[in-house]
TrEMBL record, chain A:
Gene: mreC
Family: Belongs to the MreC family.
Name the UniProt record assigns to this protein: Cell shape-determining protein MreC
Listed Pfam families: MreC (PF04085)
Keywords: Cell shape
Originating species: Allotamlana fucoidanivorans
From TrEMBL, chain B:
Superkingdom of the source species: Bacteria
The protein's name: Rod shape-determining protein MreD
Organism: Allotamlana fucoidanivorans
Record's keyword terms, sorted: Membrane, Transmembrane, Transmembrane helix
Transmembrane parts of this sequence: 51-68, 113-133, 145-163
Length: 274, 168
């Protein structure tokens, strides 16, 4: 017994180092697996508060470019709205008569990150704004990511620039779908894999979300095909997708809640159990 | 004792704020960021207790991780260099270290540079191995280590020169 205690005292530095190193390894491994419970995230009171107060100042510097973006989006929506109202002029249908399955929230990115291999963003909306895990996040130009963790006032977003991110996406002109991943290299490009060889591809084709995952509605723009190659087995394409979004400059985003998510998940679970 | 404590607390907080709010948004050439917060570990007094240094480094790394959503990679790398620091001190300063009389303001520039370089490269290598966490991307790890290290070393040396009290 005496010897054990002596051993511990003699090697206390090494043992302490080993313990703390193992703890940090544990955190690291957790952060590499999707949606594991992790304690170390920036959606807490301290980091969220710091980022929020800094963002209050720094957002002034990008006011001009963000205004242009919003005006651009307004222009699109206006043209959509006026064109649609002219067509359906005679048979006016109140859109509130239908229950839309998607609900939208706005939020601001208070911390952006794109230089790591696993990037998380922080937004200024959280549980008190009824934001929950697995809501989709898009900007006016295209897809951004999925809500990962929320605290009371803040949330983190698993960016599409994250090597663990998997989002279902498809070609706009046909219905061939695949998985959107990222190889960790350039923040301008993501990779679309598992598109079957039979799909007719061309450079410049548009990629949209497929609406299969119950997170994003169908048709959220992702990007255009920059180049593509067949994988090693020569059955599927690996496509480099140039994103519509400039992921290095995002501020105003929309959060999408699918009200039917629970129903869809239950249905899928039932099907799996049978 | 009290003044040493307050100096290091301020240094801890300032380095974290500087790192998180400014240095992590540099993204030179898309991905190169300096990690200057390790200056806290590098400049920690040598005579003080090693256990405290290891615990403080862990806390420092964990704070950075908290801000960057990176799991535990900064904590791991910081704890490692805090543990390995005596060996590095011995290799870069030699006999002076044995007598425990180093003052970072007074040692000659060459050995200080060696010390910073060793510490930074070791820290960055562990940091990026943990971040990328895949043996097949070892080239990317080495590439990131090399470029970020150059940046970090440059900035650390500049900061130490800028904030050192001149021995008169």
């Amino acid at each position: 017994m005496q010897q054990i205690i002596n051993f511990i005292i003699r090697n206390k530095n090494f043992l302490l180092f080993l313990l703390l190193f193992c703890v940090s390894l544990l955190f690291t491994i957790q952060s590499h697996s999707y949606h594991k419970s992790k304690f170390i995230n920036s959606a807490n009171f301290l980091t969220g508060g710091v980022y929020n107060s800094i963002n209050n100042i720094s957002s002034y510097f990008s006011l001009k470019s963000q205004n242009t973006l919003l005006a651009e989006e307004n222009k699109q929506l206006k043209s959509l709205w006026f064109n649609a109202s002219q067509k359906t002029d005679s048979t006016y249908v109140d859109s509130t008569a239908f229950q839309s399955p998607y609900r939208f929230y706005t939020a601001n990115i208070i911390k952006n990150s794109y230089a790591l291999t696993d990037n998380y963003l922080t937004i200024n909306k959280g549980r008190k704004d009824s934001i929950k895990q697995d809501f989709g996040v898009i900007s006016s130009k295209g897809i951004i990511g999925i809500i990962d963790k929320t605290s009371r006032g803040y949330g983190t977003v698993l960016s599409i620039l994250n090597t663990t991110s998997r989002i279902s996406a498809q070609l706009k002109k046909t219905n061939h779908f695949g998985t959107l991943t990222w190889n960790g290299k350039s923040p301008e490009f993501t990779q679309l894999v598992d598109i079957p060889k039979i799909a007719p591809l061309q450079k410049g084709d548009t990629i949209i979300t497929s609406g299969r995952s119950s997170i994003f509605p169908k048709g959220v723009p992702v990007g255009v095909i920059a180049d593509f190659v067949l994988d090693q087995a020569e059955n599927f394409y690996e496509i480099n997708v140039k994103l519509f979004n400039d992921m290095t400059n995002i501020e105003h985003v929309y959060i999408i809640e699918n009200i039917d998510t629970e129903e869809i998940l239950n249905l899928n679970n039932n099907n799996n159990n049978d | 004792m009290n003044s040493i404590f307050s100096i290091h607390t301020t240094r801890f907080i300032l380095l974290v704020v500087f790192q998180v709010l400014i240095l992590n948004h540099i993204n030179f050439l898309g991905y190169i960021n300096p990690y200057v917060y390790i200056l806290f570990i590098a400049l920690y007094p040598i005579k003080n207790n090693r256990v405290i240094l290891i615990v403080l480094s862990f806390l420092l790394g964990l704070t950075i991780d908290l801000f960057l959503d990176t799991g535990g990679i900064h904590a791991g790398a910081s704890v490692f260099i805090a543990y390995a620091r005596p060996v590095l001190l011995k290799t870069s300063f030699g006999a002076i270290y044995e007598h425990q009389t180093i003052k970072f303001n007074t040692v000659d520039f060459g050995s200080k540079l060696t010390y910073f370089t060793l510490l930074t490269v070791m820290h960055h290598l562990i940091l990026f191995s943990l971040e990328i966490f895949s043996l097949s991307k070892i080239i990317l790890v080495l590439q990131k280590t090399l470029f970020s290290s150059i940046f970090t070393i440059l900035l650390s040396v500049l900061i130490t020169i800028l904030f050192s009290k001149k021995p008169r």
